[in-house]
TrEMBL record:
The lineage of its organism: Bacteria, Pseudomonadati, Myxococcota, Myxococcia, Myxococcales. Keywords: Lyase, Zinc. Transmembrane segments: none annotated. This is carbonic anhydrase. PROSITE patterns: PROK_CO2_ANHYDRASE_1. SMART domains: Pro_CA. Its EC number is 4.2.1.1. It comes from Corallococcus soli. It comes from the Bacteria. It catalyses: hydrogencarbonate + H(+) = CO2 + H2O. The keyword Chloroplast does not apply.
Length: 212
């Protein structure tokens, strides 16, 4: 049996296990979704959103791309945020990066990476914003990890800049935005403790989109 064929065997086993433990599982799952969480993470295959959060199917609305970027001209991620906030009423939006991120590592290299150049430029911009801090870190591995963290924080701020998030929070008190980094070396999520309310207040001096 090939690895591809084995997927269907695994799927059947998983479906049978769900039904044995909860006969109504798929009935509920097929009716609607009301997740409290939107998770925006890296496409890296080693960081599965539901599993690291300990949540079941239907609990997390998920968007993933290389290096967990939130680019305001990326209609994919902007559509996901808009739908999650305005239609699904999510209460929390999480940007989750991870140590060992290949996208962040690539952005630190002085190389022409073809079609990846415009995408990774977003991370290079993060480096430029925080160049003094990053250049002050002598150890390359720690500088790399810090860029992972700063990238997550900057992408979280990009979410707070959106009209959907600003208007929903003003009207309903949610969602709030969180910045996480997953450590594959121990399986632990590191909460970077983004101060959502203060960050929203600060960025609205320039990015206030709450007026119709």
């Amino acid at each position: 049996m090939t690895p591809y064929d084995k997927i269907f065997e695994n799927n059947k086993r998983w479906a049978d296990e769900q039904l044995r433990s909860d006969p109504d599982f798929f009935t509920r799952l097929s009716q609607s979704q009301q997740p409290d969480f939107l998770y925006i993470g890296c496409s890296d295959s080693r960081v599965p959103a539901n599993q690291i959060m300990g949540l079941a199917p239907g609990d997390v609305f998920v968007h993933r791309n290389v290096a967990n970027l939130v680019n305001n001209v990326d209609l994919n991620v902007m559509s996901v945020i808009n739908y999650a906030v305005r239609q699904l009423d999510v209460k929390h939006i999480i940007v989750c990066g991870h140590y060992g991120c290949g996208g962040v590592r690539a952005a630190m290299q002085p190389k022409d990476l073809g079609i990846l150049n415009p995408w990774l430029r977003n991370i290079r911009d993060v480096y430029r914003f925080h160049k003094q801090e990053l250049d002050g870190i002598a150890e390359e591995s720690r500088r790399y990890e810090r860029l992972v963290e700063l990238n997550v924080l900057e992408q979280s701020i990009n979410i707070i800049k959106t009209a959907a998030v600003q208007k929903s929070y003003l009207a309903r008190g949610f969602p709030t935005v969180h910045a996480w980094v997953f450590d594959m070396r121990n399986g632990i999520i590191n909460d970077l403790k983004l101060d959502f309310v203060q960050t929203l207040h600060n960025i609205q001096e320039v990015y206030d989109l709450t007026k119709d």
